[in-house]
Amino acid sequence: MADAKIVSVTIGPMPRTLPEGMGDPMPKVHAYFDDGTDEVLFHYYPDEISLTESEFIGLTALEAKALRRLKDVSYLRS
């Protein structure tokens, strides 16, 4: 699966707005690969980084996780 490419992704569910959403789980990125497998890649804080499904198409799981890391670093440096 290390070389499998992402063919589709679902992101969510998004937490409710605060204060109602306090304690809601963070959204997850769930990827579906060209070899028929699927995997939850990670959870993230949507108030810190923005992700879209289309950004992940054609990436491997490692590349997708690197994209998240890049966005996290960019947010922390801003």
Give the tags.
78 residues, alpha+beta, 1 helix
Radius of gyration: 13 Å
> Strand portion, in percent?
15-25%
In terms of structural class, how would the helical and strand content be classed? alpha+beta
Mean pLDDT: 94
Number of helices, counting only DSSP H or I runs of 4 residues or more = 1
Structural notes for this entry:
By secondary structure, this protein is α+β, with helices and mostly antiparallel strands. The protein has one domain (6-77). Helix content is 22%, strand content 24%. The protein has one helix at 61-77; strands spanning 6-12, 28-33, 38-43. The protein has a three-stranded antiparallel β-sheet, covered by helices on one side.
Quick structural summary:
The protein has 78 residues and is α+β, with helices and mostly antiparallel strands.
Write the layout of secondary structure elements.
Elements: E1 6-12, E2 28-33, E3 38-43, H1 61-77
Antiparallel strand pairs: 1-2, 2-3
